[in-house]
């Protein structure tokens, strides 16, 4: 059965194996799951042929590997043959080496099996890639590599599609990274739940459209597996989302403070401020150097201003604990100034309850380049709810160049993090998901790493991955608006992980609503329409 809704959970390949094992242990044979998987692939193959040719009689070539992914290929082949399709099967490796359910599926296949290199693509309308799935163990080489390249060349030259089983072969389902080479699919059919690699780049592009099929694995196994990675959709954060209440007023919706840089760089703070206000903060104030006050005052209406020339001014401003969220970084200026301000900011919360929400972005992140340990110590000592919002460059400068062996680099941090060695290794992992999780575990902050596949991770290992951000979101000032929106959500009391995840989703939804040609100023102005649709969906779920 194909799924018509988007479940949130994303399963690593290890978690998916656990789901298979638990299901098989509860009495459903593996061969049944494989038959269901094959049937789902066959159904999609028929749809694809139907769409391309208006009939389902075109030739289909199925490339099977030596494990259960190949078994799914045999099961699909048999199903397609039974439905009257023209199917040919090639196998990587000897038939007699297949074991378990894959051997059973191959035995049930009534047609011939060619060596994979002999399976011709001449006149083929659709190729099915069932070489490797969750069991990919190393980079592809030799005949496996040649086969993948042959499939890609054929598809590029003819425009005919490849349908991938579970994941395009060569793609690591947990990380979204390519192991050597990978198939470029038009469509991927995966089972039970999507894997992080279906969302993370380059995986998402290699998968084409990902279709989720249910093959008889019960949702109940999720309670035992307890997956920690989720697709970033409203269902992830809707329960804590600050929907305005009839009995609320602006003072119950928090007060966000945005730190501005000097005269030549005030626009970023105003973009962030507008983002915070549109995201629903009750009050928003821009704290600005005196030299830029007139510029801000002339450009702002609903947003207030305060003079803040140095860390002392900031500490005084923050004695007002009603200013419960702060955004620092956009356009803030030179490293020494930014660092001094952020120190004052992190030391200002005292024993606030609930702790102040703080978004650190742009120039603040750059001011701590190579000093992730220093930043981590200050964040942990602050007790604040901190969200870091780097792009790839800022992330690399912050976490990519640290020397854990330098004396004193860990300071008093080491006892506060689990498995420090593994954490350091993960910081340079090829997997974006693992890198962001490690950065979050090190700093004790929620970390949001931007990109077309923005990942948000919390120190406890929860993570969200975005899969619906439009390319026109990558425009000057867009990140400033995002930082402000997250600040606005924090001001309303949204917990940091959910505020960051919801901020990413709303930012993308606003950009989708506006469409191509978007500039940063359009994002806050598109939020009301997004909220209207979002609240309607919340209310629809309540009735
Ligand atoms: N379990 C179930 O009930 C269900 C499972 N399902 C399906 O099973 C799939 C997972 O199956 P799987 O675990 O057998 O792994 P799979 O991806 O076929 O590859 C393993 C084989 O490839 C080989 N190999 C690995 N890397 C290689 C390389 N670079 N180059 C060359 N060879 C390489 C590896 O060899 P080895 O490493 O042992 O030398 C081994 O022979 C999953 O994606 C889904 O499609 C569904 O039917 C639902 C029910
Ligand atoms: K595959």
Automatic annotation (TrEMBL):
Binds 1 potassium ion per subunit. Pfam families: Carb_kinase, YjeF_N. Residues 233-534 form the YjeF C-terminal domain. SUPFAM superfamilies: Ribokinase-like, YjeF N-terminal domain-like. (6S)-NADPHX binds at residues 68-72, 133-139, 166, 268, 331, 391, 480. Its EC number is 4.2.1.136, 5.1.99.6. Gene3D superfamilies: 3.40.1190.20, YjeF N-terminal domain. It comes from the Bacteria. GO terms for molecular function: ADP-dependent NAD(P)H-hydrate dehydratase activity; ATP binding; kinase activity; metal ion binding; NAD(P)HX epimerase activity. InterPro entries: Carbohydrate_kinase_pred_CS, CARKD, Nnr, Ribokinase-like, YjeF_N_dom, YjeF_N_dom_sf. The keyword Calcium does not apply. It catalyses: (6R)-NADPHX = (6S)-NADPHX; (6S)-NADHX + ADP = AMP + phosphate + NADH + H(+); (6S)-NADPHX + ADP = AMP + phosphate + NADPH + H(+); (6R)-NADHX = (6S)-NADHX. Belongs to the NnrD/CARKD family. In the N-terminal section; belongs to the NnrE/AIBP family. Homotetramer. Catalyzes the dehydration of the S-form of NAD(P)HX at the expense of ADP, which is converted to AMP. Together with NAD(P)HX epimerase, which catalyzes the epimerization of the S- and R-forms, the enzyme allows the repair of both epimers of NAD(P)HX, a damaged form of NAD(P)H that is a result of enzymatic or heat-dependent hydration. Bifunctional enzyme that catalyzes the epimerization of the S- and R-forms of NAD(P)HX and the dehydration of the S-form of NAD(P)HX at the expense of ADP, which is converted to AMP. This allows the repair of both epimers of NAD(P)HX, a damaged form of NAD(P)H that is a result of enzymatic or heat-dependent hydration. This is Bifunctional NAD(P)H-hydrate repair enzyme.
């Amino acid at each position: 059965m194909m799924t018509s809704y988007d479940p949130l959970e994303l399963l690593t390949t290890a978690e998916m194996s656990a789901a298979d094992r638990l299901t098989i242990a509860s009495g459903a044979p593996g061969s049944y799951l494989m038959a269901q998987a094959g049937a789902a692939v066959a159904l999609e193959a028929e749809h694809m042929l139907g769409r391309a040719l208006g009939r389902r009689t075109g030739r289909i070539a199925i490339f099977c590997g030596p494990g259960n992914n190949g078994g799914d290929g045999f099961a699909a082949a048999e199903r397609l043959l039974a439905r009257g399709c023209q199917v040919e099967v090639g196998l990587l490796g000897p038939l007699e080496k297949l074991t378990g359910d894959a051997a059973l599926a191959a035995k049930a296949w009534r047609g011939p099996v060619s060596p994979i290199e002999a399976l011709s693509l001449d006149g083929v309308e659709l190729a099915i890639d069932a070489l490797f799935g969750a069991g990919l163990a190393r980079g592809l080489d030799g005949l496996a590599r040649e086969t993948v390249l042959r499939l890609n060349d054929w598809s590029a030259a003819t425009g005919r599609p490849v349908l991938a089983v579970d994941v395009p072969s060569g793609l690591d389902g947990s990380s979204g990274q390519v192991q050597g080479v990978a198939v470029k699919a038009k469509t991927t059919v995966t089972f039970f739940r999507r894997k992080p690699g279906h969302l993370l780049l380059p995986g998402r592009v290699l998968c084409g459209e990902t279709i989720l099929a249910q093959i008889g694995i019960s949702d109940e196994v999720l309670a035992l597996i307890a997956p920690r990675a989720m697709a970033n959709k409203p269902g992830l954060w809707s329960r804590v989302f600050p929907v305005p209440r009839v009995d609320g007023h602006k003072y119950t919706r928090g007060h966000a403070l945005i730190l501005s840089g000097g005269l030549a760089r005030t626009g970023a703070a105003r973009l962030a401020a507008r983002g915070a206000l549109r995201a629903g903060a009750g009050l928003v104030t821009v704290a600005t150097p005196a030299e830029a006050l007139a510029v801000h005052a002339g450009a702002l209406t609903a947003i207030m201003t305060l003079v803040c020339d140095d860390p002392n001014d900031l500490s005084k401003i923050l004695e007002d604990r009603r200013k419960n969220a702060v955004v620092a970084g956009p356009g803030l200026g030179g490293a020494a100034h930014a660092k001094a301000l952020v120190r004052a900011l992190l030391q200002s919360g005292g024993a606030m309850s609930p702790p102040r929400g703080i978004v650190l972005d742009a120039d603040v992140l750059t001011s701590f380049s190579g000093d992730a340990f220093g930043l981590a110590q200050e964040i942990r000592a602050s007790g604040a709810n901190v969200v870091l919002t780097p792009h790839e460059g800022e992330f690399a400068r912050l976490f990519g160049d640290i020397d854990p062996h330098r004396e004193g680099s860990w300071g008093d941090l080491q006892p506060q993090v689990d498995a420090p060695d593994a954490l350091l290794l993960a910081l340079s992992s090829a997997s974006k998901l693992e890198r962001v999780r490690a950065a979050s575990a090190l700093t004790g902050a929620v970390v949001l790493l931007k990109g077309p596949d923005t990942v948000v991770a919390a120190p406890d290992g929860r993570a969200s991955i975005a899969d619906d951000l439009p390319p026109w979101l990558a425009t000057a000032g867009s990140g400033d608006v995002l930082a402000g929106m997250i600040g606005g959500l924090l001001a309303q009391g949204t917990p940091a992980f959910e505020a960051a995840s919801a901020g990413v989703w709303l930012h993308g939804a606003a950009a989708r609503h506006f469409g191509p040609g978007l500039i940063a100023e359009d994002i806050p102005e598109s939020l009301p329409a997004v909220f209207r649709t979002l609240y309607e969906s919340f209310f629809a779920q309540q009735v």
